[in-house]
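Lecture notes, continued. The same structure-token format from the folding unit now serves as the input rather than the output. Read the line below as a description of shape only.
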């Protein structure tokens, strides 16, 4: 039976010569293979009077990608009834997906479009070819096998520390003398440094994006494409050249590449047919340090991550920016974070129970233990006391501590290093002792599990344990052993760090020498100097209110500056201050007592 097709009379007499080259082979704008395909198809079209014809090409596109621009243009012309014939070198040029290739063949048949695969000897006008389905299946198998081989090569290169993409990120460009290396792009790298500086100053990504956009700084994709650093087909165009967004900023802050590291295996495609990428957990990444010049140093990068980790609730406009101490304040008794409570002086009144009067509400900026909150029970947090402290008091203590320690570093650097190392060695020796004890315990249990699992296999083999029970026990033991393996590796890493470096005083000394103005406590100063602030409950045992606050500084922990013995004048001044405070408290109590008696008399008079 002759299945010869007749051309749809509504179509124009147009022949499309379609060429495609895989991205694995085609890294030039107009590769030799595409040229060869054009010559072959033109010669065939002229010899067989398939005119007029036009060329449509997809150079550098995989056959599993059906969003190829040339192919989409071809399909649009077919759907618009503008095509009489399509010529391709072989059926694999259409694509390497058996199912989709079959669907497109049916589409061409329904539209009355003649399909010719020159090297396959296929012409739809001559009827069905029994080998066509097999060719399509083999083409798909080829794509699958190629994908598997490429993945294997990529994995091997990635494990060796080779960068899996040469397309440089924003802030870098390719070295003109070696295309496998990145060098710093001076213009964009300064924007990257600024983003990290502003993050450390407490500016969030959303605000940062608005600032960069308002200053008309070109967005990364547009900047890199216009300067031919990368070739991005979808950079947005001139209409959105300054449109920075929050995600762009957060991605820049999170990239370890800015420290000079190469990070491989962040994500991958599950199948060669599925273009969606699956993100891997950070534990599965392969990180190789110092593979290219750094734009920001490691400490700056880590400090920016620390600033980003703290979630700050938005505050009313009248209160200004979010409190930079949030995320650093901890309760000394329950170790929970402390909440920041802020109220503007909005003219409202509050009632003083003891005085029996209403007073204008003043501005409040205080911290209290999160476990003391009324919601503590719903959050399943063990109850704790309030640990109330004013933000102004914390800032004052913090500034004094930073100022005193920095001054001591500049004047007594050698003694400072000796004291910090001595304190650190004592503290870390205790921690290392505890870690080594737990490590020995875990290693012993890990060895016991080897014996248990081995015996379990023997009991199952001789029929003592049924298969179902064997599977359940084996899964449990192997899970426990896997967890122990991870714990042992982590503890060994900590112990090695204890042995290798007792403390990083040089980093703190560098920061301390960088600051000379201590007239004001700034947000960058807080982030660079402070690791955590531990607040104790106030002591009111002697009628006053005394509260201990421990300041832990980055790199050195808690450090008390040696102070000289107080002079007789300083002791006398302190005692005078205490006496004055005591007199004020007693006067206030007398005033309260007098006011309460007056209220009682007023109430009695109203009753009579």
């Amino acid at each position: 039976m002759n299945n010869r097709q007749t051309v749809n009379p509504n179509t124009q007499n147009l022949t499309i010569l379609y060429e495609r080259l895989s991205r694995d082979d085609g890294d030039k704008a107009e590769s030799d293979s595409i040229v060869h395909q054009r010559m072959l198809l033109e010669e065939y079209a002229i010899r067989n009077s398939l005119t007029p014809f036009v060329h449509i090409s997809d150079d550098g596109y995989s056959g599993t990608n059906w969003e190829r621009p040339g192919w989409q243009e071809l399909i649009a012309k077919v759907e618009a009834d503008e095509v009489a014939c399509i010529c391709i070198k072989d059926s694999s040029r259409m694509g390497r997906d058996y199912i989709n290739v079959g669907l497109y063949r049916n589409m061409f048949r329904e539209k009355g479009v003649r399909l010719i695969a020159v090297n396959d000897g296929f012409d739809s006008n001559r009827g069905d070819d029994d080998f066509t389905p097999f060719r399509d299946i083999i083409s798909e198998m080829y794509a699958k096998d190629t994908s598997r081989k490429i993945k294997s090569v990529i994995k091997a290169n990635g494990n060796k520390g080779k960068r899996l993409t040469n397309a440089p990120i924003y802030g870098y460009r390719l070295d003109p003398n070696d295309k496998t290396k990145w060098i710093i792009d001076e213009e964009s790298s300064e924007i990257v440094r600024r983003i990290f500086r502003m993050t450390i100053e407490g500016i969030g990504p959303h605000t940062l994006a608005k600032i960069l956009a308002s200053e008309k700084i070109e967005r990364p994709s547009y900047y890199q494409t216009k300067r031919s650093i990368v070739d991005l087909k979808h950079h947005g165009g001139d209409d959105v050249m300054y449109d920075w967004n929050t995600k762009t900023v957060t991605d820049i802050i999170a990239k370890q590449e800015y420290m000079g590291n190469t990070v491989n295996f962040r994500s991958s495609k599950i199948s060669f047919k599925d273009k969606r990428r699956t993100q891997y957990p950070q534990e599965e990444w392969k990180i190789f340090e110092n593979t290219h010049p750094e734009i920001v140093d490691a400490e700056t990068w880590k400090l920016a991550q620390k600033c980003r980790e703290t979630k700050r609730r938005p505050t009313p406009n009248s209160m200004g920016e979010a409190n930079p101490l949030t995320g650093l304040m901890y309760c000394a008794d329950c170790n929970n974070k402390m909440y920041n409570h802020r109220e503007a002086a909005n003219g409202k009144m509050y009632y003083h129970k003891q005085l029996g009067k209403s007073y204008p509400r003043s501005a409040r900026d205080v911290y209290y233990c999160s476990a003391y909150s009324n919601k503590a029970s719903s959050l399943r947090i063990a109850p704790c006391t309030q640990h109330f402290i004013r933000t102004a008091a914390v800032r004052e203590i913090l500034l004094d501590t930073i100022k005193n320690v920095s001054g001591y570093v500049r004047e007594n650097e050698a003694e400072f290093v000796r004291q910090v190392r001595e304190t650190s060695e004592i503290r870390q020796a205790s921690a290392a002792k505890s870690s080594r004890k737990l490590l020995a315990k875990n290693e012993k249990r890990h060895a016991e599990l080897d014996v248990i699992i081995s015996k379990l296999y023997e009991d199952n083999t001789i029929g003592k344990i049924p298969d179902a029970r064997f599977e359940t026990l084996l899964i449990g033991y192997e899970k426990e052993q896997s967890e122990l393996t991870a714990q042992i590796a982590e503890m060994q890493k900590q112990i090695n760090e204890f042995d290798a470096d007792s403390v990083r005083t040089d980093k703190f000394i560098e920061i301390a020498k960088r600051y000379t103005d201590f007239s004001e406590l700034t947000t960058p100063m807080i982030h660079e100097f402070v690791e955590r602030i531990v607040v104790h409950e106030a002591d009111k045992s002697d009628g006053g209110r005394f509260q201990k606050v421990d300041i832990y500084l980055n790199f050195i922990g808690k450090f008390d500056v040696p102070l000289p013995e107080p002079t007789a004048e300083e002791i006398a001044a302190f005692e005078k201050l205490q006496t004055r405070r005591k007199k004020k408290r007693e006067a206030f109590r007398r005033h309260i007592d007098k006011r309460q008696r007056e209220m009682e008399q007023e109430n009695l008079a109203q009753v009579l």
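Point for the exam: The two ends are 121 Å apart (CA to CA).
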